[in-house]
Amino acid sequence: xxxxxxxxxxxxxxxxxxxxxxxxxxxxxxxxxxxxxxxxxxxxxxxxxxxxxxxxxxxxxxxxxxxxxxxxxxxxxxxxxxxxxxxxxxxxxxxxxxxxxxxxxxxxxxxxxxxxxxxxxxxxxxxxxxxxxxxxxxxxxxxxxxxxxxxxxxxxxxxxxxxxxxxxxxxxxxxxxxxxxxxxxxxxxxxxxxxxxxxxxxxxxxxxxxxxxxxxxxxxxxxxxxxxxxxxxxxxxxxxxxxxxxxxxxxxxxxxxxxxxxxxxxxxxxxxxxxxxxxxxxxxxxxxxxxxxxxxxxxxxxxxxxxxxxxxxxxxxxxxxxxxxxxxxxxxxxxxxxxxxxxxxxxxxxxxxxxxxxxxxxxxxxxxxxxxxxxxxxxxxxxxxxxxxxxxxxxxxxxxxxxxxxxxx
Length: 409
Known about the structure:
Order of helices and strands: EEEHEHHEHEEHEEHEHEEEHHEHHHH
CATH topology of the largest domain: Rossmann fold
CATH architecture of the largest domain: 3-Layer(aba) Sandwich
Structural class: alpha/beta
Helix content: 40-55%
Shape: globular
Distance between the termini: 31 Å
Number of helices: 13
Oligomer: single chain
CATH class of the largest domain: Alpha Beta
CATH superfamily of the largest domain: HUPs
Strand order of the largest sheet: 5-4-3-10-11
Radius of gyration: 22 Å
Largest sheet: 5 strands, parallel
């Protein structure tokens, strides 16, 4: 599966700072100091309704991670999956009377278009669950050999008790895990499971549903969590720098994935930091496909909204915060784009090196994009009031906003 084209990232004078970011597993800040190549895995979409503002906020956060790393003169090895076979996708296809593969291809293509328009840097590897199946099957078989998996009426489950580190990503108690498992694709009430939250590794073929040859597992399809594990281990290996996604992935998805990988390899941890973006609400409720309260990037673009304004609307909220999308949020972002473009269009202005340092410092401090925007706002205000002798300042600032915030002025 191919990703989307990369926009050019301008080179800036000087060098950025190492990223300090909030780690869900430890509950506090960690300073990330990758080697020459920083390794990032971000969980991708299930392509049956793309790309709503909740998606955009998540991928915006990890685009900033990439940009901070690139500014430290590192390369970035970024991997993202597409869950192109799963119950929600199959259910939507059946509801709409369309082929599930056609629906997945259509929504994935739309997601690529949105990411391109928003100038999100693409992954080096963009892998669908279906194409990953040949690598998933041996991992499930290995977990079974290790005694970490068991059969239940033809399905194969992972035993969470097999990982001594289970629970150390989300740090939830058993009751909270069971509740979230039921809400987020698990089946804690199924009789015969060793632990109610044990996740499925391989689902035996069901009538009328797609299935693949699973070798000793029989025909079926993979569970959700093992998909990302197979892709991450194949392309990044253990101990990569950041595992990312929305906050609703901390449990069960990232918790289960970490345990799968740790049992398979005997190493700990799967990722050096688990980083989660907040949820976006509309009309007082989390924006979600199940509720149908979605604002789509593609619809905003069709309505003539500048993608730069969409990105600034996202940047106006700290990535870890839960926030609400409103028309005022968008109006404020449109006005900010107009102010910034007017400022950089003037041939002179106050020195920009200081504001570039301020933006770098803000982003290195747990991706504090709102403070980065405030730093640029202060420069724009000074420029409007006084101007100045530095004719290169608008160019420097414009390149910095592009390189660090992904916004083309």
